[in-house]
Specification:
Helices cover 35% and strands 15% of the residues. The protein has helices spanning 4-7, 35-42, 44-47, 67-70, 86-93, 126-140, 156-160, 172-186, 209-222, 224-228, 234-239; strands spanning 18-21, 24-27, 49-55, 143-149, 188-193, 197-202, 246-250. The strands form two sheets. The protein has a four-stranded antiparallel sheet. The protein has a three-stranded antiparallel sheet with strand order 5-6-7. A hairpin with a 2-residue loop joins strand 1 and strand 2 (24-27). Helix 2 (35-42) runs antiparallel to helix 6 (126-140). This is DUF4253 domain-containing protein.
């Protein structure tokens, strides 16, 4: 593993001061140069270190906690990702009982998960899209820079034993398996990792409402909390996904 001392002097990279927190290296302070996020993505194939933005979380401000250090983790689970059937997993996570008075909020679907959406055609480089999205977010908010040694961005949660989805499932390998599938089908790439939230840049979002409906069902199975926080039913949520290049999920 690269040491913190050598980390900040990797050839071609200028990084802020930071330290290892177990399997993730974090800058000590929020990024002040948003372009450093894009620089880390540009260097990913060389370094094997995927950058994530770790947002400031007001819920821990009063206690002085840092969830990266002070909250428990699951065991690393990268070795189990390939054993996960994404379609079966999302079908298992599909909850038909969240709607008040029936399944109306799931229209045009019902009690059964409709299956996976077809792959979209990539027209934009996913890494370039992630670099642009991450740099914009870093310019607008307070984020520490995190770096994790992975073969692909989707593996970050499983590598860290991330517990952000613990209110729904403790299967962090399944979370990374879904993210891998979205990487492959939509160029959806992890850029933000919070205590209980994920944000992805999306290089190939659905372009038509029909495709967006199936993608919306996948989102809803993945994070019921994110869906239930939106107005309207699944069809209306799907309309918001057409051409949308930024997906956000939370389990708070």
């Amino acid at each position: 593993m690269t040491t913190a001392a050598s980390f900040e002097t990797l050839p071609g990279l200028h990084l802020p001061a930071g330290h290892w927190h177990g399997p993730i290296w974090l800058s000590d302070e929020p990024l002040t140069e948003p372009g450093q996020y894009r620089d880390c993505i540009d260097a990913f194939e060389r370094t094997g270190l995927w950058p994530v933005l770790v947002p400031h979380d007001e819920r821990f401000a009063a206690t002085g906690e840092d969830w990266v250090d002070d909250r428990r983790r699951l065991g690393p689970a990268v070795h189990r990702i390939e054993t996960v059937d994404v379609g079966q997993t999302l079908a298992r996570w599909w909850d038909p009982f969240c709607c008040a008075g029936g399944t109306g909020c799931l229209r045009p679907y019902g009690a059964n998960f409709p299956g996976l959406a077809r792959k979209s055609q990539l027209r934009v480089d996913p890494l370039a899209e992630a670099g642009n999205t991450g740099s914009i977010l870093a310019r607008r908010g307070m984020y520490r820079l995190g770096l994790v040694a992975v073969e692909r961005p989707a593996d970050v949660p499983a590598t860290l034993g991330w517990t952000g989805m613990i209110k729904s499932t403790d299967q962090v390998a399944a979370v990374s398996a879904v993210l891998r599938s979205w990487e492959d089908r939509f160029g959806a790439t992890l850029v933000v990792l919070g205590f209980d939230e994920l944000e992805l840049s999306v290089a190939a979002p659905p372009r038509l409402q029909g495709r967006a409906l199936v993608v919306a069902a996948e989102h809803r199975a993945f994070s019921v909390r994110s869906f239930s926080g939106q107005p309207g039913n699944l069809r209306e949520y799907a309309a918001s996904l057409v051409h949308k290049r930024h997906w956000r999920f939370s389990w708070d």
